[in-house]
Fold:
Amino acid sequence: MKKSFIIGFALLLGIVLCMGFSSTPVQAKTTFVTIGTGGITGVYYPTGGAIAKIVNKKRKLYGIRATVESTGGSVFNVNAVMTGDLDFGVVQSDRQYQAINGLAEWKDKGPQKDLRAVFTIHPESITLVAADDAGINSIKDLKGKRVNIGNPGSGQRQNSIDALANAGLDYKSDLQAEGVKAAEAPGLLQDGRIDAFFYTVGHPSGAIKEATAGKRKVHFVPITGVDKLLSKYPYYAKAKIPIKLYPGATNKEDVKTFGVKATFVTSAKVPDAVVYAITKEVFDNFDSFKKLHPAYQVLTKQNMLEGMSAPIHPGAMKYYKEAGLK
Ligand code: GLU
Structure:
């Protein structure tokens, strides 16, 4: 009798303890979301960090814990968001357009129908950095040179190919094209292992600072004569690299080129509540968000809704309607 009472009591205690653990609020409710970015010396990585920081402040309210992953860039991010390996990704506006329409890198796979836009962020420019001693003053001078055009997962790779083709150069036969990640290119340029590299990036960026601050003197090469390219591809626009951001570069004036925008994307499969929470926190804390990176100086709430080609995720749309932005 006494023994069965003890067993009964122990069982009851066990049940109570189990219930206690399973109802621990944070563990039971936390939704982990991962944001795919780019190389750590780019602007996507701190951008993912800025978004995560803002949303993680309200962890108790939403139960969302956002983390950031360094990745190969836009193309990798689209694909990983589509497979569900990432929940969100920072992606160039031109890659968003290509992915939703099944073009370029998605020509064989077809339109990425579940891709959803959340908002757009900073402008990025197609940035060509060359060593002063390599005799490269226009994009045509890249003929026969060793040039990093970007790794296959990056957004810049297709931009480099487009810019070269516009100048009459075939990246496969007219130059020694390298496919390394943007974070490695400044070191290779400084070590004399490449003559130039392309990077589609917001300014200022750590990678370009690194490339312009070494012993080997470098400059930005203007990319002009792009009117035909711009009329062919609606997602490209003229842009300028402000030279004051890179005192180590030997250019005297701002550099003409063309550019795109960084955008924030997700999948139709990501719950509305999660996308709503992230959108709301970024927009409701817009002034603090803007201070998190100098590349955000030009942002307004309105222009953060321009440049999306995939359908806007319903969770984001709910916020835009509530806030009177749509
Ligand atoms: N635009 C680059 C890409 O899509 C990344 C730039 C960055 O990391 O800031 O791969």
